[in-house]
From TrEMBL:
This is Polyketide cyclase. It holds the Pfam family SnoaL. It comes from the Bacteria. PANTHER family: ESTER CYCLASE, POLYKETIDE CYCLASE SNOAL-LIKE DOMAIN. Signal peptide: none annotated. GO terms for biological process: polyketide metabolic process.
Length: 333
């Protein structure tokens, strides 16, 4: 019997590679005519299958020569949020030779792993809705044109799960338990010491995070190890800059096996009250599109992959990071 999660993954992996002349008829087999895809800045909303092909799929195929998908996590389940629906989600890389510009990001003619977080709603075997965050800031880094003054954490390729079992785990009951743990953590996120940013409910014997937690962050932040590393290389800087941030406005929360994921579009509202990654405080109200993917071990969160729409966030702060990157000379050329 056909499985909609497996079928969707098979389709997405083929969509990026089918010959040009076959792309449109192939897309009609699994993308609804009136599909709506929201893509991170600068792309925005694409309405209808042809807009999706012209505005997202074809640009990726042109920019990354011989491109293919390299899925690190891929699973699906019934959405726990009120809107419901059957959703699949993925942490993937679009891999190829980056030798043509992509959404204004200039290439360096080198291999690139363009990381992406993705959520797709499936109805009657067709993709009717999608949300995608392509990490363009990390792609700029890979092209030798990193537009920010520093990386807070460690620069690295997003790894797959340490257990190598993130593709279609197929254990819905355990997935519900995994999502319960993540939702408990979300509920306690607002409780922290404003001086040290420590959260008693998040760590320790009764906390939500494993002592060996790995937090894989997007371009501009980087990755961290352990709760102390998470605070030092992401949380403290973010909360100083956006002390009134509120999150949790999620359109989708799903779990399968030891994995869970959520996304909000936007998920977060906040005010820019402190310097952040070289940008002085603007005191502007801002929003942030967010995707988080989790692996659970010993009833605690041990790995967390995070995609944030930082091109949009910097635009709200008055900084065009794509233009800034394009004005730089690549240190690879």
């Amino acid at each position: 019997m056909s499985d909609w999660r497996t079928d969707t993954r098979t389709f997405l992996n083929a969509l990026i590679r089918v010959p040009d002349l076959e792309l449109e008829p192939f897309a009609r087999t699994a993308i609804a005519d009136d599909t709506i895809w929201d893509i991170a800045a600068p792309v925005g909303r694409l309405e209808g299958r042809e807009a999706v092909l012209d505005g997202f799929v074809r640009p990726l195929r042109r920019a990354l020569r011989r491109v293919y998908r390299r899925d690190e996590i891929f699973f699906g389940a019934r959405n726990r949020r009120e809107a419901g629906g059957d959703w699949v989600c993925a942490v993937t890389h679009y891999v190829g030779v980056f030798d043509r510009d992509l959404f204004g990001v200039l290439p360096a003619g080198r291999m690139a792993f363009a990381r992406s977080g993705e959520f797709y709603r499936i109805a009657n075997g067709m993709i009717v809705e999608a949300k995608i965050i392509l990490d363009l800031i990390d792609l700029m880094r890979q092209a030798g044109r990193f537009p920010l003054p520093r990386m807070l954490g460690t620069e690295m390729l997003f790894p797959g799960p340490a257990t190598h079992d993130g593709i279609l785990p197929n254990d819905p009951a355990r997935g519900e338990a995994s999502l319960d743990i993540v939702e408990a953590m979300i509920g306690d996120l607002q409780e922290f010491d404003p001086e040290t940013f420590h959260s008693e409910s998040q760590t320790g014997t009764h906390g939500h995070w494993h002592e060996d937690m790995m937090w894989y962050g997007p371009g501009g932040i980087g990755s961290t190890f352990g709760w102390d590393g998470f605070v030092s290389h992401h949380r403290a800087a973010f909360l100083r800059a956006f002390p009134d941030r509120r999150g949790g406005n999620h359109f989708c929360r799903i779990g399968d096996g030891d994995f869970a994921a959520f996304s909000g579009w936007p998920s977060m509202t906040m005010t820019h009250r402190g310097d952040y990654l070289g940008v002085p405080a603007t005191n502007r109200a801002m929003t942030l599109n967010v995707m988080d993917f989790y692996r659970i071990a010993d009833a605690k969160i041990i790995e967390n992959w995070v995609l944030l729409d930082y091109v949009s966030l910097f635009d709200q702060m008055g900084v065009d990071v794509i233009a800034r990157s394009a004005a730089m000379e690549s240190h690879f050329l």
